[in-house]
Amino acid sequence: MVFKLILKMMSKAIIQSLMKVSACQLYFGRCQQMRQRLCFVEVGFYSDVCFAHTTIPVNSDALPENLGESKLSSKEYLSRTAQHHDSASGPEKFPTASVIPNIPSQKINFYRRALPRSCISFTSEEGKEIFRESLLAGDMNCYFHLASQYRTQDEPAFCGLSTLVMVLNTLEIDPKKVWKSPWRWYHENMLDCCIPLAVVEKTGITMDQFACLAACNMLNVKMVRTDQSVSVEDFRNLVKDVVRHTDQVLVVTYSRECLEQTGDGHFSPIGGYNAQRDLVLIMDTARFKYPPHWVSLNMLFNAMQELDKTAGLPRGYFLLSKSNINPGLIFRLSVNLSPVYLQNKDSKIAAFFQSWEQHLMTQSITHIANSSVAVFNLAVSRLLLLLDDLDNDVFLLTSEVGSEEMSKHYGRNIRKLLLLIEGLPVYQIIDQGVKSGNISMNSLRKAGLSGRSSSGVEHLASSIEQPCSRLNLNVASYVTSAHFLAMLILSWPYHHCNGGRLCTALHRHTSMLLAESGSELLQNEVLRLRQQLTSILSYCKNCSDDSCKQLSNAD
Asked: What is the pTM of this model?
């Protein structure tokens, strides 16, 4: 009797346990039927507990749009899947994830995507044949320089930055900034003159921000939005020309959806063209997602014409080439001149630029127009008044000279440049004002701060009176606020003022000063800083409303 009772109890326990395991297997098995999700689930039986180790979607392309790349835990994933099935199939109910204990919280992850049929993998047999045809036709000349700099973007939203890094290194532009000592080389973390990297990581960049960054880093930029004024034939002719040369790079920004890919806005360089099949080579920097691939030129053009959902503007392309202006020697724009601050209408820096531009356009100078000293005196006094309104921790320019970059030749050039600036009337006006006590040092130091300073805004790298002829190799520490203010006046893009009064006079007199100096060193330093200022100010003017604030890419 006792033996039969034990058997009965064991049978009952086994049946109950098997029922629980079956329920789990049924529940997890449904995962394979729901919206074509393939789930690998381990179901075990330990101490009368049904558990799942991990749920990982293998067929990631089958995931629905709203969940395709969301960061869901296993429980959230199972719960949503069950809820979807409940709503789609009527009264039949399944256990929810909340009743299944010990499911580890793990985010859904992916290993690449399968290219859609509209795209041909560059490494496939067909892709190789297309490459061979294009190479023989001479339509792959641009490929090899780009391929030598091909990189995978570091962040999901860095497609714009990584594409630009490829272009800058392809065109062999010296950033004049150390990447990893002792090497100077472009990397994404250097591209922050128009938008903070922390912002890019979250939202990507827009077309206007891309253009701003490119111009800020010594590229000639032609940006075209593919609206109704641009035809596919125009684009085709441009592609045919660019792929045969190595001194220009064509970058396209387009909607992935139109290429039957997941995601939306994206930046990529064009690496080649096949005229026989009318295919272009997309060198996708998101190689963790899609490999480089061939796609129809017509389909790509339609993807470029797709309106950005936020801005209501079409996407387009950029034609990029190396600027004739060499990298700057000393002077840089500070982070305070980022469009993020300039576009904030409530910020003091935005008010400063608005007041300065207004003063340039409205100040009458009829009686002093022909006197460079009088014109520069007026400009210095007005700028100092406006600088006084800025916060004490704000400065407009900075200098960046690392010890890794120093050499005797480099030090001599910096010394020569500073001496040239000190010989100009605009600098001498500032110098005399400081010596006479007519210029407030609190206002003057906001014109610029030496990048070698480690003690904050209160530090002036040297006194105004320090003779430049005695500089040693540590010349960066001798760049003073007087140098910064003089460079700001010399470098301002007055040619964009459209005939303003003081603006016109300053444009004429600064141009005369640079020409009379006969120094390519000074002229290049001014033009380089002016190019940066122009790119940022143009971006801010063009994007004064919300039309330029669209999210452009995230993969």
From this structure: 0.71
